[in-house]
Structure formats: C-alpha cells, structure tokens
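for the writeup, i need someone to sanity check this before i put it in the appendix. the sequnce is what the collaborator sent (i think, or maybe the updated version? ugh). structure was predicted straight from it, no edits. if anything looks off just tell me and ill rerun, i have time this weekend
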Amino acid sequence: MTDINSIKSAWSALGGDPVLASRVTVVVRRGALEARLPVRELARGCVGGCALAAAELGARRGGPTEVPGVVVDDGAVAAAFHSERVLLVDGRAPVGFAPLSRFWRTADGWVRTHANYPHHRARLLDVVGASEDVGAVGAALAERSAVDVEEAVYAAGGLAVALRTPKEWAAHEQAAAVSARPLVERERLDSAPARVLTPVDGSPLLPAAGLRVLDLTRVLAGPVATRTLALLGADVLRVDPPQLPELPDQHADTGFGKRSATLDLAADRGIFEDLLAKADVVVTGYRPGALDRFGLSAQALAERRPGIVVAQVSAWGAYGPWGDRRGFDSLVQVASGIADTEGSQERPGALPAQALDHGTGYLLAAAVLRALTEQSHEGGSRFVRLALARTAQWLVHGIEAGAAGDEAYDGPGPWLAGTDSPLGRLRYALPPVSFTGGPVDWARPPMPWGTDPAR
C-alpha cells in the first residue's frame, strides 16, 4: 500500500523489523498539509514510525502479547504539526515570527533571517547597522548580496541564510555532507549490559513509564521529541540556562507532560551530575559541540553513565562546513531549495507547517524508543542523531506523494482539546501518536518556565 510507504521508509531508517509495518493503518485525508512537496507523507512517516516504536517497546515491556496496532490519522498529524499555531492561552493566539524574522530582498536575490530571540536580533542589527525599524533593515540589506549577509551575520553570531535553488543546494559542500549520512544515525558506544525493563501494565499502556529523561533542547524539534516521550510515560525534566529563557508560547506548546528547571551547567555541575546518575536518556538540541565543554558529548556521557541513551538533534548536522552553525526550520527550508520550490516568481515560499522541526522531533523520539528496545536485547550505551537538513533531503528526494484520499481534512477542530493550567486556559493539539491501548493525552499541562526543582 502506498499509504504506508513513508512509514516503511522511516521504520527502516530506525532499524525496525519490517514485518511490524503491517501493524499500521492509515486514515488518508486529502487536503492535509497541502504543498508541492509531499509534506503530508513526510509527516505521516515520522509519526507512524514513532507510534510503531512506542508500540514495540510497550510489547517488549510485557504489555500486550503482540505489538499493538498503530493508527496514523492524517488529520491528527496535520493538527499536531501546527501545534504552535493552534495553541491558545486564555484565548490569546501565540506570538509567531518576530518582525525581523522574515524574507528580505538583497542586491542579488533573497535572504531569510531569524531574530525571535533577543540575542539573535541584537547580532543581526549589529551587522546591518540599523535600528529595529523594518524599513531601515530592509534598505540596508538591499545593498548587499545574499551570501554576504549570510556570512556576515553568521560571523557575528546571528542567523541569516541566502535563498538557494535545489540545484544550488545540491552543489553546496554541506548538502554533500548531509546526503552522505543516513536519515537516522544510530551507534552503539560501548558494551554496557542489557537494559532491564520493568514490566508495565494498566491502562493506558505507557511504554516509557519509569524512564528518566534529561531534556536539554530548544525550539522546536527537540522539545517535540521530549514532549512525545512524556506522553508515553517518561519522567521528563527540561533544563535551561537561567540567562536564556524560552519564548513563553513555545514553552507552553512543547511543555506538556514535562517539568521545567533552570541550571547553570558550569556553576551547578554537581547538581547536573546527580541528575545524570539517575537518567536513562539525555536529549540535546543545541548547536553541535556547544555542550561538549560541559562533558555532554555522547561518549563523555556514556563513560560517566554506562547504559545511557544519548539523542542529539541539530539544524545542519554535526559535520561538513556548516557543522557548527546554528539554524532553525525556516532557515533550512531556505538553504535547501524548499523555499524556492514552494514559492513563486515574485517571492520565496514555505511549507504549510514547520514540518522539518515536527517531523524530525517525532523521528528523534522514535529513535530513542528503538534504542531502549535494542538495549533490552543487546545492551550497550546508545547514540542517535538527526538533522533538519537530512530530513529536508528525505522530503525532497526520498518520498513520493500518495493517493489524495476519500476523506477531506477540514481543519484541526476534531483534534483540539482544552485544559486549565498554571499558564492559563489552554487550547492545544492532541498528540498524533496512537496505538491500541496507548495514551490519548498528556498526564499534566505545562508548568511555568523554570519553576520546578532540578531533580
């Protein structure tokens, strides 16, 4: 069936048993995540692979006698991929991109900047030598080439990427480095003994129950992954540096099921080591290498905590000439030719959702779940790694569009829910990860940023 081709592809990248793909049923909905590129199929594959990994782990932990059936509904997936857009806090819509996070015309094309965080906005303004006035910034950028802006802003610690066509990106050294890697990088780090998984029972079936996850991620793929692990029963503690608060609406969207603490990794090293000593999983989402000085490389973590699962996600990958660069979904779309493909002759375009972020997030959660299952058979500390740019490569070159479907997607309404929380009354998208007997919602709403103890 073509409906599950992208799920089979994702499942293969995760190292899953191909026989288990028969456990998946898809509800195909026309109009969900419409685009020129097969975004609906990408999203379906990522969520389906994650749900199947959860079902597999649940069966391994002594739940059902066989791997539960998985249902992937394109409507639920589309709603979840718009979670940061459909969120309401006391009836207020979320703050989207900041005024300086946008496309700009340059002397020879287009550039896109990302300035949602104050420190990134300040670095952009330092380069352009203008005030925060959009007109003044636009006038300054219009006098420079797109690649010149890209390099100057990057050198200053900001975020800007020149628009490239698919052909131009294919000729770039970073694209070659990305293409040479698998969609999901999976590595066994040592010979730690097999993980002993305590049985789980009861309803709902929570495959990750009792597992402790340290969440050192930021917008958006990493927090989506850890939000999914929290849904599945994991005890997730998000840890942020106190001097870099998360954007409030982003925190509200991705904080379901988690606790949130602040920690200075340099000054509070002893506290972090106590957390690590009890952790089963560490997920990081910072620029590659940025946390290594704190002893948070995969190898260093495994040496101090044998049997750990380390998961990393980045924008460009931890290799190639852009291996140390910051990035976000919108910027990867611009560099990789996606914005050119989805645009018009007048202006670049964008995918109908931040699909690289969301899709990579579900794949990252799936990779963690599969690593836990594999550990229960074979042991070994595990390292899994994904990159938005590699997910983009899969979208553009590795997925085919499927049948339109008989049922229409008429919006996210059926897959939205509401709850009271310390942040106010929330409207939010329900989780799309679904398997027989599994959870249908998170056990707790998001807490205010940084208000939980670091334990």
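Residues 355-378 form the longest helix (24 residues). The radius of gyration is 21 Å.
thx in advance!!
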